[in-house]
Amino acid sequence: MELEQLIATEQRLDAALRRAREECARVVADAREAARRVEEALAAEIAAAAAAAAAVTATERQRREAEIAREAADRVAHYDAVPGPRIDTLAQDVVSQLVSQGAT
Questions:
Q1: Residue 29: which H helix or E strand, with range?
Q2: How far, rounded to the nearest angstrom, does the alpha carbon of residue 91 sit from its chain's CA centroid?
Q3: Three-class SS state of 14
């Protein structure tokens, strides 16, 4: 009778061990799946943030390029507005100053 009880106990323990291993395998599989979902969500979030940053950078670059182009056009217009005779007079003044400095 004692042997039968030992065998029955061993069978119960084997069955409990098998159930525990199956449960562990399910828990590990569930954890891996959860980790995969989190990783995918994070990757999507990173991609969205990178795309948003690229869009902001492109917009800022375009704004700055337009600003530089406006400034350049303003300067060109300013210089183009100086009449030719005034440029001639200024050039003669510069040459005169250089000549007078070279003579001393």
A1: helix 2-80
A2: 52
A3: helix
Task: Report the distance separating Cα 58 and Cα 66, nearest Å.
Answer: 12
CA dist 40 and 17 (Å) reads 34
Task: Report pLDDT digits (tens) over 9-57.
Answer: 999 999 999 999 999 999 999 999 999 999 999 999 999 999 999 999 9
- Tokens (6 digits) for 23: 């449960």
Q: What is the pTM of this model?
A: 0.56
The rounded distance, in Å, linking the Cα atoms of 38 and 31 is 10
Token pair of 32, please? 């891996």
Distances 94 to 40, 48, 91 between C-alpha atoms, Å = 70, 59, 5
Residue holding tokens 């337009």? Answer: 66
Residue 24 tokens, joined: 């562990």
